[in-house]
Amino acid sequence: MTTIDWDAAADSFDEEPDHGLHDPVVRSAWARRMESWLPTARSAVLDLGCGTGSLSLLVAGQGHRVTAVDRSPRMAEHARAKLAGTGTEVLVGDAARPPVGGQRFDVILARHTVWLLPDPAAALRHWFSLLRPGGRLLLIEGVWNGTGLSAARLTGLLHEHTERVHHEPLSGDSLLWGKEVDDERYALVARAEPPRRHREVVDVHLVLRRGSDVLLARRAGTGYADGLLHAPSGHAEDGEDVRAAMIRETAEEIGVELDPDELRVALVMQHRGPGGNPRTGWFFEVDLDPARPPRNAEPDKCSELGWYPLHALPDDMVAYCRAALDAYRAGQRFLVHWHEDTDAVAYEPRGIRRAVPLPVAAAPTGRLHHLELWVPDLAEADAEWGWLLGRLGHLPYQRWSHGRSWRRGDSYVVVERSPDGAGGRHDRLRPGLNHLAFHVRDRDTLDTLVADAPGHGWRLLFPDRHPYAGGSGHYAAYLENTAGYEVELVAP
Questions:
Q1: Is the overall model pTM greater than 0.90, yes or no?
Q2: With contact defined as beta carbons under 8 Å apart, do 462 and 478 qualify?
Q3: FRET pair for 108, CA 20 to 30 Å: which of 199, 208, 359, 464?
Q4: Alpha helices in 47-166 (DSSP H)
């Protein structure tokens, strides 16, 4: 608390442009701000630490009923003279415990007052008790030459009483101060509403698969992320579970009627957009039924639908949707994607990755941690294994001078050109590793992989018996790469 002699300062107080508001430009700047902060309807306003009453005069001039309080008799004397004829009552008293009895107010205004109080928390507690339900507390504060009260600290004090606090920086508006300033000046508008339990919107997203492709919609006319690609999506309505919401949104957006049994949970993600509130998103995987082709059922919100390879998604996507699909492809099932306020809504290929995969609780004993293959040619292995593992949903993980790895979930595959290695080409017929086997989600995806494999160093084994080289009930492909390693791809 300062020990300023406010009676002594009263006669010269209005010499500061933002105190006296004599300059019509400064006065107009404050009038515009007050109009934006105060209710439009005529309200009862309590101005605490009113000084010479300049802001009280503006507020009264905007049609509000004002009660003004200052602890300095000399300041109050100036205020009464300035406010004569406005119907404003000017009282002498402590701003922390204003002498207003049982009166209640729609607005409590305090400019450059809270920082002077010996116990700001107690004062704020009392001020909230003087507000009517839904009323607002308007605090204009700052930090000057190292003294004052920061917005962060004052906001923290307000959170005991309300969740609705609007912060408005004022330093950049030189018209308010009659000069340029470089310190922290701000306004906080807090509503007299009790803290509420945290609530989040629950949204649903469709991962519609056509083999290795996924359906994306280009947003248009929505006011959010227009022009960017996103999975068909929406949010759950009151009384609606996430399956019902996904079925409804799918019908509304792409004209496909789904059965609940078709839905498989692909991913659950908590996400926050730049400057937005957190949401929880459920991503559901569904296989395309050729008899029910999707169509653009909401042309006012979507400019086009298109199929895109899941392993080579486009860059012009909503960032959190791109992160979700990348995680889904990598076998991750729970994710947090938390934007900073300065992030872009759009995916940025070289931007900071905000996705944080969350591990699933399970006993670790017995699960595969990693598999390491020693290879004769690292560059060749990097190209061949990198292509295949990437198409199977593994993501690049580690990279060092003589090795590479790709991760899916909490397991990874390593290829390494070790200086301790002996021999050349791998012989799968000798004792040791014969082959690796991977699941493939469906037969169309397997067939596509087989067709693309020769262009990436892999050849089909047992072509005369493909795709049943493993038996009549076993739809699979057996591939061999340049170094002699065999991989089995198994489809349902």
A1: no
A2: yes
A3: 199
A4: 54-61, 73-83, 120-129, 151-158
